[in-house]
Amino acid sequence: MAKKTAAATAGAHGEDAVPTARTAAAPEELAVRPGEDPWTSAEVDEARTALMEETVRLRLEITTAEDAIAGLMRDSGDGAGDDEADTGTKNITREHELALASNAREMLHQTERALSRLDAGTYGLCENCGKPIGKARMQAFPRATLCVECKQQQERR
């Protein structure tokens, strides 16, 4: 998985060391279900690129939502001259923007976690049972952390 350099090893023994960049897991180290072809470098690169693009998109979405929320807060003023419908509309709009920002933050967290798991070589392993999630599922939903069986159990609860 991640390789240690002499500097990183020295740091593990209490000596001063310069942090080193992690080495990404090799594609063949990533989990697949029985009968599936191993991950190829191109497939891993495609997954990484898609996740990184999603990270950029989500950061922009969060910034846009936060700007909209700031504008709504600034424009809310004291509400003088607003009737109940205007106040209600402003509140609903503000709550909607807050929900969008919260959802985007959660998706960003999941996307960054998927990138970390890709680097660590645990991408494609179910976080619940430890079995392979399945390459096709990971390609369809790159942020997946549970196999289909565990996800179904989670949804039944």
From TrEMBL:
Residues 121-156 form the Zinc finger DksA/TraR C4-type domain. Keywords: DNA-binding, Metal-binding, Zinc, Zinc-finger. It comes from the Bacteria. Residues 1-12 have a biased composition (Low complexity). Residues 1-40, 73-92 are annotated as: Disordered. Transmembrane segments: none annotated. GO terms for molecular function: DNA binding; zinc ion binding. InterPro entries: DnaK_N, Znf_C4-type_bac, Znf_DskA_TraR, Znf_DskA_TraR_CS. PANTHER family: RNA POLYMERASE-BINDING TRANSCRIPTION FACTOR DKSA, RNA POLYMERASE-BINDING TRANSCRIPTION FACTOR DKSA-RELATED. This is DNA-binding protein. It comes from Streptomyces lydicus. The lineage of its organism: Bacteria, Bacillati, Actinomycetota, Actinomycetes, Kitasatosporales.
